[in-house]
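Hello,

Following up on my earlier ticket. Below are the two sequence lines again, exactly as submitted.
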Amino acid sequence: MFKKIIVLLMLSMLVAVSAQAELKVNSEGKPIIKVASDCTWPPMEFINKDKQLVGFSVDLMKAAAEAGGYVVEIKNVAWDGIFAGLAAGKYDCITSSVSINDKRKKAMDFSSPYFEVTQAVVTNKDSNAKTLADFKGMKVGAQIGTTGYFAVKKTDDVIAKSYDEVGLAMEDLYNGRLVAVVCDNPVAADFALQQAEYSKRMKIAFTVKSDTTEFYGVAIRKGNTEVLELINKGLAAVVKDGTYDKINAKWFGTAK
Amino acid sequence: MTDKPTKIEITDGAGIPAKNDAGLISAWWISFIGAISIITYLVVTKPDPYKDILMFVPDGILVTFQVTIFSIIGASIIGLFTGLGRISKNKILNLIASTYVEVVRGIPLLVQLFYIYYALGRVLQVPDMLSAIIAMSVCYGAYMGEVFRAGIDSIDSGQTEAARSLGFDKNQTMFFVVLPQAWRMILPPVGNEFIALLKDSSLVSILAVADILRRGREFAAESFQYFETYTMIALLYLLITLILSKGVSYMEDRLNHYDR
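Thanks for your patience. The regenerated structure is below:
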């Protein structure tokens, strides 16, 4: 009897472990990858007027899934804590304009890069600043935990203010509490130029110079090679068949 | 010569053990010593990241204190006038005060903070720290108003009647007779509001005000050490509120003591 219980316990543990490692499959037998995304980052990923998750990376993930033979379920997760959720196994990967850097590579794995990005500085139209150092003693905002925020913090004598969402930082710039906001260039373009109210007063002044090129990648839980391989396969396929260029043209006008 | 005066001094003097002070083994001491020991243990045994976190947040602690203290002062002033308005016989004043209480108590603090900071920011440019303090004061002023009203209500109407018959006018009665007595009833709940306000002040971190929580989140966002960071943040808040609650219960005991 005692032995039976031990065997049963061990078996159930095996089942539990394998269930965690293997992806669930849908009715057609395709594996389901759960994706987290902070949808406050237009035009990369955001929620449109019909309450739908849309954007460049959303389209890209769906196309990659189609090409790679898997299904994606995208969930809106707040940026603050999005990496903690990945580590805790709440989802399989993050496609949320995550820039690949060495510090993050220690905590998670990355897919092959899918988008090149620079840090753009949005200011008021009358500003003459050419570099971040020109904002000496003034408040510059960015979203918490983003490369933009780290760039501001690295600049001496500039007061870095971190916001939960980049939109809130833009609102504070509009209201005059900040002199500038630093964020990824496609997002800066969307906020400063596309939104009627903001574009009257704001401009993209310059980009932050960096010695290394910055790329977005899909962040995957450390050691989860199954998901990593599936996503890389999908991404490679959409780049090869030209779908990537079509999506790029859809969101940014001209294909690069 | 008699020794009467000294005897009175002794019985009436300070140092009489407070009635709810149960020595070293009480929930308060367990929590207090526990929190301090855990913080010390973590910092000593795992300086990376716990000591780093502790070094990262001090200016946040200062900001939290600033927001809390200025807000409680603002809320007390608003609360006093709201409380007086609520018991006023002047229908218009009464209506204004009551409406304020109803409206503010019906809107979550987080929403009020967003509103005062971002929505009003379009019309009126107030610095972030000040608007956080204003928002906290406005929200807690409504609750304080009820505390003041209850305190004033608790004073026997005979006191007012006596004061009036001695020739005090309405305002004199309120400020020289009723309020000084009501203060004793008001102080303990004000102390509780103080502690509640300190905890709720963590909400101002959404306004990019660099309080304890915001500093902690900045640390976590960079290091990905969420568990460690929030453990430290929780312990720090616990420690601060414990110290404050001791202060509040000390004040209560002093008041009760004089009441005897």
